[in-house]
Design goal:
It is a single chain. The chain is an all-alpha fold. It has one domain. The chain is built from nine helices and no strands.
Length: 217
Amino acid sequence: MQKIRVTTLKQILKLLACAMILKVILGVLFSYRDYVPPNFESDFLRGRKVYFSGSYQTAFYGHIFSGPCSLLLGLVLLNEQFRQRFAKCHRCLGRVQIACVLLLVAPSGLWMAFHAETGAIAGFGFAALAVATGFCISFGWRSAVKRRFAEHRRWMWRCFLLLCSAVVLRLMGGLATIAEVEGEWAYQTAAWTSWLLPLGVFEMAQLRVRRKKQHTQ
């Protein structure tokens, strides 16, 4: 009975997480009306007119178009049933995901980090996020090529959690608004915790799994 309850709880949490991710994706798509053409009175673009040209503009549009795509692909690729039933499609979509993250999401996020709101602390947080995302998907790619599939899945889960920092960041922003928490420090803290916290939880879970395996051997 307890196992059934735990399984049910896990399924509910997965559904809630997927719903939250899809909500953020729809929110980004809906916000395109403020970005094409750019509306410098909108929340994100306010104060960015001075440098919104050239390389930053390219990075910005590359990021907002590739980000939702990478999240959707991640939801599909990490689905175990999809992987087992459509192995060839999984591999093809995986290559698309690798190209999307390495060529668009990570480099555009890194470039935009230099102009992060509230300055260098948040900027370094987003820059570290972009670099970590690129490394994770690169290691995941290498593991798949070497047919180390268990290792591949772990790296791709790390990559997906880092991509979901956009979801966590919006969730934290909503909670800060409800709690009436203001100030630059709140955004600077969120720039780091939005990806370090989920990644830390994942690593702790992996450590617990390894310890259980050691005890059973």
